[in-house]
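Design review, sub-item: ligand-bound model
Attendees: FS, YL, KQ
YL presented the inputs for the 3-methyl-2-oxobutanoic acid complex:
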Amino acid sequence: MKDSTMKDSRTKQRLIIFDTTLRDGEQSPGASMTQEEKIRIARLLEKMRVDVIEAGFPAASPGDFNSVQAIARLIKDSTVCGLARANAKDVARAGDALKAAASGRIHTFIATSPIHMQHKLRMTPDQVIDHAVAAIKQARGYTDDVEFSPEDAGRSELDFLCRIIEQAIKAGARTINIPDTVGYNLPAQFGRLIEKLLEKIPNSDQAVFSVHCHNDLGLAVANSLAAVTAGARQVECTVNGLGERAGNASLEEIVMAVRTRQDEFICDTNIDTTQIVPASRLVSHITGFPVQPNKAIVGANAFAHEAGIHQDGVIKARETYEIMSAEEVGWSSNRMVLGKHSGRNAFKQRLKTLGFEFSSDDKMNKAFARFKDMADKKHEIFDDDLQALVTESGNEAGNERFILVHLQAYSATDQTPSAKVVMGVDGIEVKAEETGNGAVDATFKAIEKIIESGSALQLYSVNSITSGTDAQGEVSVRLEKEGVIVNGHGADMDIIIASAKAYINALNKLYNAEIRTHPQRAQAV
Ligand code: KIV
Ligand code: ZN
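KQ shared the predicted structure:
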C-alpha cells in the first residue's frame, strides 16, 4: 500500500487526488457509461497518475459490480475504490469486487446531519455511529485501506461529527472524507470546519482528512482549496466537474490551482498535468456532456487571446496574460500527427501515446483499415480524429446486433427530407424508408421503424472534431427507455452518417444485457 501522507522530493506534502468521475460523475443525470467506456477512462486516469480511482458503487447493480471488478483487475498504479453504504451487504459487495485489486479501497458512508438522520435514515445518532463502526470493521476484513464519509457533513453538528469521526478512526478508517453533499458551505466556513475537526478530534493525526464538495453554489473548487489550506490532504473531484446536480469539484481546476500557486500551498499533487485535456475530451465524448468554451483549463477558449492588446503582450512575453502554459495541461496534443503514408506501427504507437491500447490484433487491424480509409479522404489527421476513430472501431468490435449497411438521405430547400436505411439486424438485412423534418430526423425515424425500440431521444448533439470543412462531425445521441439511459457516439465526415452511427451505437447499448438501471435509480431501490 502506498503511504498517502508521504512527502515528495521537494519536501512538499502530497495532496492525494481521488477521482470520482466513474462514480459520482456517473450519477449525473444522463452520464451513464458502459463497462468498456469506464475502463478507457480508468486507464487514462491511471496514466494521469491519479492516486485513487473511485470506480463505482458495486452494490448498486450487477453492471456496477462488474465494472468495479474489471477496473480493479486492470489498474495497477492507482488505488481502485468501491463505494458502500454502511451496511453488511454493500460492504461485502465492495470487498468482493475489489478482491483482485493491486491496491483496493472501500469507501463507506452514512449520513450524519440531523435532517438526513431523522428523515432519510430514521436512526438516532447512536445508531448511526454503530452502523458506521460495524461497516468500517467489516471493510477492514477486506483491506487495510478504508475510507469513511459522514454524508452531509457540511450540515452536521460539529460535536456529533467529532464523536463519529473519532469512533470511525478507532474502528480502522484511514481516510476521513468530509462531504459538502448539497453544496451549501462557503469557503471560509468550510476551511474553519476542517481546522476544527483536525484540532478537536483526539486521534485526527491517525487519518488523512479529505474533502468532497458539490457545486450547487458554484463553490466546490473554492471550498476544496480552503479545506486544503486548512489541512485536508485528499481532494475528491471529477474530470470536467461532472457529478450529481451541479457537479463536483473539477479535477483540472484543483490540480492546476495547487500547481500554479505553489507559493501558497505547502502540498502538491503527483498528477501528470499533460493528460488533463485528453481526459477532459474523453469524458466529454463518452458522456455526451460538452465542455463550455470558457471553462477554466479545458475550455476551447481557456488559452485563446482575442483582444489585440493581449495578443501583442503574449507574443512579447507569454507571462503577460497567461498564468499557465497550454502545453502544461495537454493542449499541444492536437497537432497533425499522421497521414496517408503512415504505417501500422506509427498508428499503434501514436494511439498508445494517447492512452489507447488494442486488446487484440483483429481490433487493431480493423481500426487501421478505417484509418487508411480516412487518410484517403482527409488530408490532415489529428489526435482528435484518432480518438474518434478508435471509439468507432470499439463500436464495431463487439458482436453488435445492429449495424448500418447503407444510408441514402435526401434534403432540398423545397421538398420533404427523406432517408432510406439498410441495417444488419442479427445478421439479416432489413430496409426502411421514412420522411422527416430534416435528413437526420428522417434517418432516425427509418432506423426506429426497423428496430421498434420505443426509446425516447433525450439528447442529440453535433461537434466538429477539428476545424475545416473536411473535419469529422462527432455526434452524441442519448436514449432512454424504462429508466435505462445510454449514450451513443458516431463520427464521420458526413454528419447524417455520423448521426445514424451514433443512433445505432446507442441502440446496441440499449439492447446489451450488461446495461443496467442508472445508478441514481438503482440506489433508490
Ligand atoms: O456527496 C456525497 O456526500 C457523496 C458521498 C457518498 C461521499 O457522494
Ligand atoms: Zn457526492
